[in-house]
Structures are given as C-alpha cells and as structure tokens.
Amino acid sequence: MSFETITVERNEAVGVLTLNRPQSMNALCAAMLGETAEALNQFDADDSIRAVVLTGADGCFAAGTDMSEFKNEATFAVYTAAKDELKNFKKPLISAVAHYAFGGGLELVLASDIAIAADNARFGFPEITIGVLPQLGGVSMLTNRVGRAKACDILMTGRQLSAEEALACGLVSRIVDSAELFEQAMDTAQRIAAMPASAVRLLKQAVEKSDASDAENEDALSRLSLYSADAKEGLAALSENRAPKFTHKQFIP
After folding, report:
1. How far is the C-alpha of 115 from the C-alpha of 47, rounded, in Å?
2. CA dist 164 to 120, 159, 185, 201, Å?
3. Per the count of CB atoms within 10 A, which of 77, 151, 172, 195 is most buried?
4. What value does the CA radius of gyration of the chain take, rounded to a whole number of Å?
5. By C-alpha distance, which of 104, 96, 136, 111 is closest to 40?
6. Model's pTM, two decimal places?
7. Domain ranges across the chain
8. Does residue 221 register a pLDDT over 80?
9. Do 112 and 136 meet the contact criterion of CB atoms below 8 Å apart?
10. How close are the terminal C-alpha atoms of the chain, in Å?
11. Is 234's pLDDT higher than 70?
C-alpha cells in the first residue's frame, strides 16, 4: 500500500496507520481522509490483520481540519465516504494521541474504539470559532461519549481540554507518558489481536449498537452550517489569517 498523506505498515497481526502531513501538524484534508478510508478498507479485507493503531507523524496526532476545502462540493463526498468507512470498520481501532487532536483529529479519536493519550495531549473542537459544525459526526460521537452537558461545554466554547480532563470525562481510555505512547498502543493492539477474532468483532458490534444515535440528522445540520453567512465569513477569515466579523444572523434553509 503506497500513499501520499499517510503511511501504512504492519506488525504481525497489527496494522499501523500514521497520519503524515507534518507540515500542517497532520491536519485532515480530503486527500488524507480518502487515503485513510482506503487503508482501513484494505485492513478490513485482510484477515491476518486483527487490530489497527492510528497515530500521527512527528509526535502530533492531528491539529485540525482543512476547512477551506469545503468550498469544493467534491469534499463532501470524500468526507461522507470516510465517515462511512470509519463507522463500518469491523476491527478494533486504537488511537495513540500526542499533542493535538483538534477538529477532525478529535473526530478520528472519537471514531476509535480505544483512545490512549500522551500526557502532553490536548483535545478540542474549534469549529464553532468560524461558525461551522464538525463534519465527521463529531457532535453525536462526543455526546454519546461524554454526555450532553460536557459535549455542549466543549462544542459551544471551542476550548481545549488537557489529557487529564479528557480522561476524567471519558473522552480517552487512559494517559501514558509521551515516550511510551506508541509502545502502549501497540501492546494494547497486540493483546486484542491475540483474542478470538469472531468474539472481538461481535463485541465491537454490541458496543456500537449501544451508542446508536441520529447520525443522519446530524449530517444534514453539519452540512447546513457551512452555508450560513457567519460560516462563510469564518472560512474567509481563516484563509485570510484575520479575526472573523460575525453578524450572528439566524440561518434558515
């Protein structure tokens, strides 16, 4: 498997997918998501792979989402396909999170079955600061994970969470020393890979059914958020490296 924005390797029964756009601290873009979806699909089809570790290059997980790409309608199709692949991925996915997991990076963490955080990790959804919603199902995933009150606190303020706060609210599974992050994630993946694959798959399905939410409605709201006047201003301000000037007008489709 050869890709431009990610790297993929295997360690016996464990696949390793590394987000690899270090020039942008591994911020998600359509190309990266497309390649991530393709890699996960290939891992799913490979019976010798029984767990996957998701991490970021150069000591950073993923520092955000390239929102400027949403000016292109084709981006929506890529994000939808990637979200479907993440949702339908049948094998355990373990995120190893160092430094930043913002925006789409945090959505990848939420889509994982287990999230292991380095002690230097920070989490957040800054999308509200430019007037849009997370685009990979982050609202429902976060609400299911931490509850409505905490989700609103995180989503509506755009603030950052420390690794300790993320652990306290159940956003991540555990915290480890940054120097041991990848080793701990691999140990976890290898331990799971040693379990009966059929039982692990059924267990993942059982957990997912307990988390079910109205994802279709969230998709519609997330897309609509991109068409408001304030979202257009936020995206313009982001590309022009300036503070946005919001009008706060209600958007009625």
Report:
1. 23
2. 10, 14, 18, 30
3. 172
4. 18
5. 111
6. 0.90
7. 1-178+197-253
8. no
9. no
10. 43
11. yes
**CATH of the domain spanning 1-178+197-253:** 3.90.226.10
* Secondary element (H or E) of residue 53: strand 51-56
Please give the structure tokens belonging to residue 177: 């020393």
Cα 244 to Cα 43: distance, rounded to the nearest angstrom:
41
Distances (CA, A) of 178 to 96, 121, 154, 215: 10, 9, 24, 34
- 8 Å CB contact between 191 and 106: no
The answer to whether 106 and 138 have CB atoms below 8 angstroms apart is yes
Strand pairing partners for 56?
19
The pLDDT tens digits of the residues spanning 92-133 come to 999 999 999 999 999 999 999 999 999 999 999 999 999 999
| Residue for token pair 């094998």 | 91
Q: What does the pLDDT read at residue 212?
A: 59
38-56 pLDDT tens trace = 999 999 999 999 999 999 9
Question: Whole-angstrom Cα distance, residue 48 to residue 11?
Answer: 11
CA distance 1 to 80: 22
